[in-house]
Design brief:
Blueprint lengths: L22 E4 L2 H8 L3 H12 L3 E4 L4 E5 L4 H15 L10 E5 L5 E5 L5 E3 L5 H8 L19 H14 L5 H14 L2 H6 L3 H8 L5 H25 L7 H11 L3 H7 L5 H23 L3 H15 L3 H11 L4 H7 L1 H9 L4 H18 L4 H5 L1 H10 L5 H10 L4 H29 L1
Antiparallel strand pairs: 1-3, 2-3, 4-5, 5-6
Helix pairs in contact: 1-2, 2-3, 2-4, 9-12, 12-13, 12-14, 13-16, 14-17, 15-19, 17-21, 19-21, 20-21
């Protein structure tokens, strides 16, 4: 039975309109939302969209306001339509559905009655409002500070509910699952996508201030070392002619002077180390391509400990191994790349590092004109798997580049960035309403 809408009426209103100036107030929106197991703001917004009006919400009173004069029967009709489109299961027509936001920013319905799992109508304007104001596990809307982010507590609760549904709630079952996953070699793959704790254990990330500072220092030193090696490979000159003359003279005096003059050590040694790391990363990627993400993680961990590398360094070597099939390769290694991103102590810096130099160098390398034209598609893939965030991409694009290579990459990326900006403008417009 459709819940009845309660309205606030003026004493002199013979037609029982709900009037507040020239506004219609849905007094019991909160109660109706609880009955439907949906945030009451969704119902109010839906009615406003269907009536071509602007809506506002009174959280303290649990009521919604729709601009304009609207009769109660009209609102009741819109409520019934809302239930049909956003509450009832498309397959069994029962109100046993839950709503969640998918990884690709789509709205998914999950029916507990018939097992249906499918997307909502993303063309309806309410879909944009829901994406901007995702539901929480208690039937309300997530706070802006945590919107779109699932906490560890939510993940643990969902995992516990899932196990309870299968009749597995004791500790012994957990141990058996771990052992079985370990034997198959892909436990990290199954668990890593929905439990940050497992990812943290995989990479042993210490989040204390001292540990973060130590990692940043090590990252800078490692980056300097790799940058120096890269420059030497490209034929860049680290010193002018006069300094080189001095170094040649000092080489005759002893090895100690050599080490003092060249803070990066012997170039040949660095190049050998770089090749060794590259080979180890390729082997790890091969493991990932075979579906053994857990094995790939272990190999990258061993390499990072052996050579003193951090996530950004590993990202650099991984992207360096990609070729014209980069888009397909990123999808193949999606789980490995996601785990590596979660291990980063500063995801914004890592995002910037992925854009420049990783992606810029990847798509603009000699002979990769075809890949350069697909830059927008490449960024879309990285955005969909949460390796790149919207604001980081837009800032990178707007900052521009003085180099010919950087300009070409941004020009190729423009269609996707324009789409991001337009979507952002639409969201702001909806928030204003």
């Amino acid at each position: 039975m459709t819940p009845r809408i309660a309205t606030r009426c003026l004493p002199s209103s013979e037609k029982r309109r709900v009037l507040d100036g020239k506004k219609t107030v849905i007094v019991n929106a909160d109660d109706v939302g609880k009955a439907l197991k949906r945030p009451w703001q969704y119902l109010v917004k839906y009615c406003a969209v269907e009536l071509g009006a602007v809506s506002t919400f009174d959280k303290e009173q649990g009521s919604g306001v729709v601009n304009g004069w609207h009769d109660t029967p009209m609102l009741q009709e819109k409520t019934a339509k809302f239930i049909k489109e956003w509450v009832l299961c498309p397959r069994c027509k029962l109100p046993e559905t839950s709503m969640e936001i998918g990884k690709k920013k789509d709205i998914i319905f999950d029916c507990k009655a018939c097992g249906y799992n499918g997307p909502a109508d993303m063309m309806h304007k309410l879909a944009t409002f829901i994406l901007n104001n995702p539901p929480d596990s208690k039937g309300g809307i997530l706070d802006k500070a945590t919107a779109g982010k699932i906490t560890k507590e939510d993940r643990k609760k969902a995992k516990a509910d899932k196990r309870a549904g299968k009749g597995k709630g004791d500790d012994d079952d957990d141990d058996d699952d771990d052992k079985e996953g370990g034997a198959k070699g892909d436990a990290a793959v199954d668990i890593g996508d929905d439990d940050d704790d497992d990812d943290d254990n995989d990479w042993a990330v210490d989040t204390s201030d001292a540990a973060v500072k130590a990692r940043e220092d090590k990252a800078q030193a490692s980056f300097d070392k790799i940058e120096a090696a890269t420059k030497s490979m490209d034929g860049a000159k680290l010193d002018d002619g006069e300094d080189k003359g001095k170094k040649k003279k000092k080489k005759k005096k002893g090895d100690d002077d050599d080490e003092d003059d060249d803070p990066f050590g012997d170039k040949a040694e660095i190049e050998e180390q770089r090749k060794a790391i590259g080979a180890e990363v390729k082997l790890a990627c091969a493991k990932s391509a075979e579906g053994d993400v857990s094995g790939a993680v272990e190999m990258l961990m061993a390499s990072s400990k052996k050579h003193g590398l951090v996530p950004n360094d590993l990202f650099g070597f991984i992207f360096e191994s990609f070729d014209d099939e980069a888009i397909k390769q990123i999808k193949t290694h999606q789980k490995l790349l996601t785990k590596l991103m979660k291990a980063s102590p500063d995801k914004k810096k890592t995002g910037k590092f992925l854009l420049s130099p990783c992606i810029e160098s990847l798509v603009s390398a000699e002979g990769r004109g075809a890949l350069l034209k697909k830059t927008a598609n490449l960024l879309k893939v990285l955005y969909d798997i949460d390796l790149l965030e919207e604001d980081i991409i837009i800032k990178w694009f707007d900052k521009g580049s003085k180099r010919k290579q950087g300009k070409a990459v941004r020009e190729a990326a423009e269609p996707f960035v324009t789409w991001l900006k337009e979507a952002s403008d639409d969201e702001e417009s909806d928030d204003d309403e």
